[in-house]
Each structure stands twice: as structure tokens, then as C-alpha cells.
Amino acid sequence: MKSGGFLLGRSLALHTTRTLATSTAARQGPIAMAAHQRYLQVWLAVSLITYVLSSSGQALIASSVSKGDYRSVKDVAYLFFSSNSQVEKEHNKRNTPRSTSETDN
């Protein structure tokens, strides 16, 4: 029941926040509502992609652990952590402010 309670609390908080954001956007007019809808769709797509990746990682690790193949567990964990690290590096590289010498040219 303990983990079920946390899951219920998380779901209620998520739906409450989404409902409040939608009602606030609706009060601001059609342009704000359209923008909110667009970002909601992007958020949903990204959250589903991360859910699929985490589920597949958990399945691969569980299968390898049940077979006693701990080398595969290490390889899968390295693959998932390195891909996350690579995405973070690309994000930081694109969002790093340029130095004044680069912007003057």
C-alpha cells in the first residue's frame, strides 16, 4: 500500500497541475491555449519515449539477472547511462553562451 499511495499522490499532483495550467491558458485566449496544447503534445511525446526506454531497460536487466548474466547487466546499464550522458553533453554544448571573441567575428 505504501508504494501505491505514492503513485496515487503523484498522479493526483500531475493531473491537478495539468488542469490548472489548462484552465489558466484557456482564460488567456485562443493563442495561449493553442501554445499550451502544442507544448502539452510535446511533453506527452517526450514522456512516452522516456517511459518506453526505461521499461525496455528494466526488462533487459531483469532478463539478464534471472539468467545470471551479470556482464549483460553491466553492458545494458552502461548503454543507458552513456546515452543519457551524450544527450546531456549535446544539450550543454548548444546552450553554452559564446565568448565575446566568437560573437565579435
From TrEMBL:
InterPro entries: DinF-like (IPR044644). Residues 86-105 are annotated as: Disordered. It is found in: Membrane. Coiled coil: none annotated. Keywords: Membrane, Transmembrane, Transmembrane helix. It is a multi-pass membrane protein. The keyword RNA-binding does not apply. One of its GO terms (cellular component) is membrane. Belongs to the multi antimicrobial extrusion (MATE) (TC 2.A.66.1) family. This is MATE efflux family protein.
